Amino acid sequence: MALGVFQTGWMRLLSLILQGCCVGVLCSDWAVRVPSAPLCAVAGSSVVLPCSYDYPQPYRVLSEMWCRDQSRCITPRYVYHSQGIFPEPASQGRVEYLGKEGTRNCSLRISDLRRSDSGTYVFYFITNHPVEKPPGQPGVTLLVADHSSEVAVSLSPAGDVVEGSSVTLFCCRTAHTPVEGYTWYKTVGYAAGDKRQMMTITNISATDSGNYYCEALTTNRPIHSSALSINVQYAPKNTSVSVNPFGELVMGSSVTLSCSSDANPAVERYTWFQRTESQASLRGSGQSYSITNISLEDSGQYCCVAMNKHGSQSYTVTMTVGKVNGQSSILWRLVVTVGIPIALTLIIIITVACIRRKTLPASSQQGYSLTETTIQQPLP
């Protein structure tokens, strides 16, 4: 009996010790703690980005780093790196790492602030763990205003805003006057529907493009920020091909195919492919493609691929030889392929998508026929 009581008491004590370990240092997990709200500062002043971190024991830290706008600091330049590699020229002489070995403090001081210092700062670190690494970090946002009365705004992530992604708008005021609340506007006088310091737009679309303003409500009066412009970019859409002249064509005549598409940035390249029963061929590039002295060999599908840096979309027209009142003529049929954005490097897959369309049967009773079919291409 005594032995059983002793074993039970020992197991409870061991359980409590293990629980204490997991709350403290010995069983700590990957973590980086930075402020979730944006930090606001005035140009010429200094600011400290508060930061602390944890990692599993008994591993040790090999390197610590701060970067901008990269969740894992995979970047050619570092705001700070413990090994002094690839420093950001604009940050040299203005940053001071406040962390000390063993303290798990990763705070960073930035002096002589400039407006260009506005952005999202991310802390990341590497340990000697053989497999695991810290997860990607959202970072802390810093907004630098030219003067203390200004309401500063910023957008994260930096860079192109692509349709379907998510962005966060930040707003703050550097003055010590209390701010009772914030309101976001899209163009002056139109409320964007958010009354917080940060506004997130998910699944952003082209209709979200425009100028955004933040209004800080103080005890005295509302103060507006300068405009924060958002230009939503997207892959080609609404691609189409026009045929000129359209209708019944006779052998030996000429025709021009013209391709158009809506894209932001504008279409960088239009490419034309022809598919016959036996092969597929690249026919040319440019917004228009002309066929002169039409003959039997020109029969087939003509596919226009519109491309920009965000993706592509194709549109196919089919030209076949048929008979109308006993005479050979050319019949046009149109098939639109509504594509989903795919990488520019997949031009071969686009070509295959073009050439796999089945030729529509030619009518023997009409001079021409026009049909439109929407075909969703699968992701490669």
UniProtKB/TrEMBL annotation:
<keyword id="KW-0472">Membrane</keyword>
<dbReference type="InterPro" id="IPR007110">
    <property type="entry name" value="Ig-like_dom"/>
</dbReference>
<dbReference type="InterPro" id="IPR013106">
    <property type="entry name" value="Ig_V-set"/>
</dbReference>
<dbReference type="InterPro" id="IPR003989">
    <property type="entry name" value="VCAM-1"/>
</dbReference>
<feature type="domain" description="Ig-like">
    <location>
        <begin position="236"/>
        <end position="320"/>
    </location>
</feature>
<dbReference type="InterPro" id="IPR003598">
    <property type="entry name" value="Ig_sub2"/>
</dbReference>
<feature type="signal peptide">
    <location>
        <begin position="1"/>
        <end position="27"/>
    </location>
</feature>
<keyword id="KW-1133">Transmembrane helix</keyword>
<dbReference type="Pfam" id="PF13895">
    <property type="entry name" value="Ig_2"/>
</dbReference>
<dbReference type="Pfam" id="PF07686">
    <property type="entry name" value="V-set"/>
</dbReference>
<dbReference type="InterPro" id="IPR003599">
    <property type="entry name" value="Ig_sub"/>
</dbReference>
<feature type="transmembrane region" description="Helical">
    <location>
        <begin position="330"/>
        <end position="355"/>
    </location>
</feature>
<keyword id="KW-0732">Signal</keyword>
<dbReference type="GO" id="GO:0016020">
    <property type="term" value="C:membrane"/>
</dbReference>
<dbReference type="GO" id="GO:0098609">
    <property type="term" value="P:cell-cell adhesion"/>
</dbReference>
<feature type="domain" description="Ig-like">
    <location>
        <begin position="138"/>
        <end position="231"/>
    </location>
</feature>
<protein>
    <submittedName>
        <fullName>B-cell receptor CD22-like</fullName>
    </submittedName>
</protein>
<dbReference type="InterPro" id="IPR013783">
    <property type="entry name" value="Ig-like_fold"/>
</dbReference>
<dbReference type="InterPro" id="IPR036179">
    <property type="entry name" value="Ig-like_dom_sf"/>
</dbReference>
<keyword id="KW-0812">Transmembrane</keyword>
